[in-house]
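Progress narrative, Year 2. Work on S-layer homology domain-containing protein from Ruminiclostridium herbifermentans advanced from sequence curation to structure prediction during this period.
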Amino acid sequence: MKKIISMLLVVVMMITFIVPAMASDVASEDNALAIAIKAVREKIEIPEECNIFNYYINNKGGLTSFNLEWTSDTEGKSINVSIDENNLIRRYYWYDRSTHSYEKKIPKFSEDQSREIAEKFINNLDSKLLEQYSLIKQNITYREDSEYIFSYVREANGIKYYSNDISISVNKFTGDVSNYTCNHTSKITFEDASKIISNEQAKKAFIDKLGLKLVYMIKTKDNMQTSYLAYVPKYSNKYIDGLTGEVEDVSTGRYLYDEYGFDTAAKSAVVAAAGGNINLTPEELEAVKSMSDVMSKENADKKVRGISFFGLDDSFKLANSYLSKDWRDNESFIWYLNYKKEISKDKVLYRDIQIDAKTGEIQNFGFTGSQEESTKPKKTEEEAKAICEDVLKSLMPGKYDKLKYDDSYSVAFEKKNQDYYTFRFVRMENGVECPDNYVQISYDNVIGNVSGANSNWSKNTTFEVPKNIIAVEKIYDILFDKIGYDIRYVSDYSKTENEKVWSEYEEAYNAVLGYFINTDKPSVISAKTGDILDNSGEVYIENEVLDYTDIEGLKAENEIKILTQMSIRYFDSQLKPKENLLQKDYFILLCQLNNQFYFGNKMDDETIENMYNSLIYSGIITKEEKAPTSAISREEAAKYFVRFLGYKNVAEIKGIYKSNFKDANKIDPDLLGYVCIASGLKAMNGSNGNFNPKNKMTRLEGLLSIYSYLSNK
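Result:
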């Protein structure tokens, strides 16, 4: 009895201590939430109609953040704010349904006015924050959105630290800040910059210790893949130390995954590799079946089951299969086979295999599902690599002899236990690497076997013998002079202890100095011409919209600049305002007005032809009306303007239109409706009461017709 009483007393005492402690934790959390809400309300006005409040508390990397949301149940408005335990507002998002419109309109706020609004907003959140940041000059593309976006990067000792940045968006029509993100590390030590090596010393170190390499790159055009020779950096994960001139590895601590993040992603990538393929219709399948060199599903299944490595005994059922074209080669086909083995309700094994339907060579494979795991890693990296090479030699003999291990490839994560390895092997042709063609294979070091492999391989592609190419010494000059090589701070996560938790706001212990190739431009240089190339193999063009060089002093200079900011402009550096307006040039403007056709950042004959094909297909013009280089009259301009707005059928109704222009009798009767609608929309106005329908439009008038229409919407 005494023992029972004693035990009860112990339990009572434990409850006495535990309950207050739990209550204290809850109270502490409630208090922290209250502080966060007050801090936000002190700096950001919450509209009264946003009266529904929600929140959640997040803790990553030891940093607590509060995600607060105020919404309106009837007004279509909401505000989302993320604030951390140090009262630093990291995210802000404002949505008002009534102000969201995808129609192009003349902005009410200029870019300069919007920047003032943006910086006032930031200073209101933290008066000292912007002092540590500088505005990044944007490579402004043809902008289709309703917002100005301003980006800032952190600086210390006059040197940029790109891991910390601020982005803020301001609505062009309301002047409201709509979006704000702040990636700022509070506790960080910047390495002393008083003893950095010179840029010339860093360049020499780059040439001697890192350098460029000659490679084959692959580009796709008209569903055909072709190769070209280019110079690229040997390493993407290394840099020159800003103090010592030695080679350092880029720290990957900021990109740590959770315990299963990479494993799942790597295996899923193998399965998803077929996602870009094209499913065949029944008619196409019949056509394929008539091809004697394409194996049937049954033969593909038999082929795969005959490979002992896959372990496909009778317990594995073919759950799904389909034949698809290889997107890299129109003449190739791939069988996608999915096998499934149910061991128990909670334990299912999968084998996903892709096999060339003509050659029978394995293209990709992946193993997923619950399997037996050991308590510790089984193989060293070299042992795992040797096993992977043996598998590739067995399964992909046609590729294996052309493969070279890529020691520059690095998966962006670190694990001390090395429970997962991924190796990449690149294709070699004429003694030159082709990094776009590779085989990547993964080894699960906990389960103890190869878990998947995927290949990217161009067929029927010729590789020109590297002759008459530019010497690499000259390419270095192009790299340094046209692309750039400069000093910057980079995060050093070498002291990060928790390697299984990815932290969105993880504090970097140090920022160290390093020299890097400028990333504003691609670092791919043609070995034949010395041109900088984009990722499609074309000559790189700056994505920057500049004002015309010949508009200074024009009466309409401001209106022209506004249209340029709205992505409505000719693809020329000069406006040439008095020259006749060609049909193709007016169509370019009208396409930009209603997003009828996407031009990208270049204009050539092929692009023009594609634009016309699109316009003819959509019924805006007919084949007979196609006359790209013809100068258009005012009444023709009215016709095309109205057609682009979708009012063709209305404009061609007979007997309902009457024009008040003095020279209405000179207007083509078939175009009278178009002229009336265009003038009614304020796109084309007369002069001294006359419309002058037969006069040729000028390039300036073409722009102003659009500006006048937009300003009167």
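Residues 1-85 form one domain. Residues 166 and 182 are 5 Å apart (CA to CA).
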